[in-house]
Amino acid sequence: MKKNVFALLTMLVLAGLIFSACGAPATPTTSAPATQAPETKPLKIAFFVSDLSNVFHQAQATEAQKYAKEKYGAEVFIFDGKSDGAVMTQNVDQVVAQGMDAATMQIWDAEAAKPGVLDALDKGIVMTSFFSPLADTGIPVARSDEKGISFEMGAEMAKQWKEAHPDKPIVMVQLGWPNHTEVKSGRTDPFVEGVLSVDPDATDLGCQDASKGPDAAKQIMTDLLTTHPEVNLIYSEASNLTVGTMAALTQAGRGKMDNGKPLTEIVASVDFDEVEMKQVYDPNSSLKLSMGLPPVETARGRIDLIMDIVNGKVKKTSQPAEEFFYKAYNVSFWTMPQADAVEWLNTQFGTNIEVEASEPSKTEGLKIAFFVSDLSNVFHQAQATEAQKYAKEKYGAEVFIFDGKSDGAVMTQNVDQVVAQGMDAATMQIWDAEAAKPGVLDALDKGIVMTSFFSPLADTGIPVARSDEKGISFEMGAEMAKQWKEAHPDKPIVMVQLGWPNHTEVKSGRTDPFVEGVLSVDPDATDLGCQDASKGPDAAKQIMTDLLTTHPEVNLIYSEASNLTVGTMAALTQAGRGKMDNGKPLTEIVASVDFDEVEMKQVYDPNSSLKLSMGLPPVETARGRIDLIMDIVNGKVKQTSQPAEEFFYKAYNISFWTMPKADAAEWLNTQFGTNVQVKAAPEAKPLKIAFFVSDLSAEELFYNISFWTMPKNKALKW
Prior knowledge:
718 residues, alpha/beta
């Protein structure tokens, strides 16, 4: 062993001397110590807030600094707009002046800010916008889904008013920013549409300009109560305006409810906070809803968007500008339990509010039948486990799992068992609604609380807990089409779906919106339709094998369940397809449903063509199904209605291109109780270099020490 080491050392030294003798530099070099590559300077990110005195923006700023440091090693600098459009515009110029590497801006005057933004882009600074697009600069936007929540609040308020006062026509008004494009499109207009969806004859007094703050809102509302005392639905488009609105109502002897029944009006707000929570959950206050905008989620989303641009996952600019949405929340007296609202507030704002446990008498000891379609499926296993735990801990209720064994007849038989086994309530997952209907009606007659999961149950009118699959399917279709067109602009899109062509809910929630999403990008795309793969993975494999023969040009594939994806990918691999090149599609792009640990490995393998999956969260859905039963028990939701009420839970687009692998792993671990770990990018192993010298005893190295080229002091130093 010693001999071999000596021989290697000899070779290393020889190499050095040979190299220095044969290739000596004409000019001197300063030998540097062997050190690691210099550390990259942390990114400096300008984080704009419109008003740092606002608790939302305070919480957002704090989280941004913490999150950027912990996740990316970046530094965040807060730029306060002071609720002044001119100051915000000046802050844009400071992005360059202060040597920022990136900025996430909140701007009120887009046109005024545009020159500064373009200048920053020219200098290579990453620029993004928060809340609203920034003129036609094309920079990406992080924004909320305010439109959907505003619509939901309007519809809910109209419904509550009509139930309480069927003889009093609806007269609505909005207080906010009538000339602000994003507020109008995200709050004012959809609120009005939501009201009109319930009562097409409702009167709209329009959006009143309360942009000068709470005093303006108070005066406007005071005047309105004189000119239009019949006004009964009020949308105050910011929490500070709500302060003035409620003050005017109180002063006029209004702002009243009777244990949740509206007496004088119903008020909705935006920017849910601790002050509003006390009013929303006061059964005698007319402020009953508020749009919760989460500072923690939005702060992280804004930082992630910048990093996605830095890492090449999102383009710096595009026309139109790309938009990335974060979730908003409808915090409602009628639909969100106070304990959940408190938990949300504490999580997002760092408050420490405590709510006394509600009277348990109605829920303690309830026996709940919890249906799953197939207990061998990891999603349903995780859902069942969480349902039992959640119901016990939150409500003191017992959950009994009813396994459908992927058999419609078994599921129907389970409905009869709800009565036979003395259940107090059931949340069902049924494949054959008509067959199950008699058992459901029998259970209702016996006073058993009945709800459905995933799809409405015939015309029974029982409430439904279901996902927002439609939006995610559309998003996946559009994303796949975009990626394919960018990679292969000369290859026409040919799409196909594998699933349940005759299943109403799958068709409306997966098949149709996926096709619509693809066509929104490429109206000329060819659709081969939904192939019946309902018999499982073997059927999916055979269908795909046949398709690759008859339609080898197929390039966008939507497999509508994870077990079908197993068969689909097997067929592609067998045919020598299923390939990508570092995220660039070569043969096709595949999307799936029911993201799990197996799929994660493929989705984040840069050379696999499975690149997206709809994540249906078992923890969230389990809790939602239990909460819906309890809301019926506690009188917050009607047992039956026509049409049946629908309560949505969130689905997730887990995409190689848009969701970082670490976030997907975190989601999987949270929802499925897995322990998937994503290693940080491995450090480069130190190079092992053979350094040859001719003789290890030699001391001389060769330099050109010259009167003309080397100063005397450097020669002496050498």
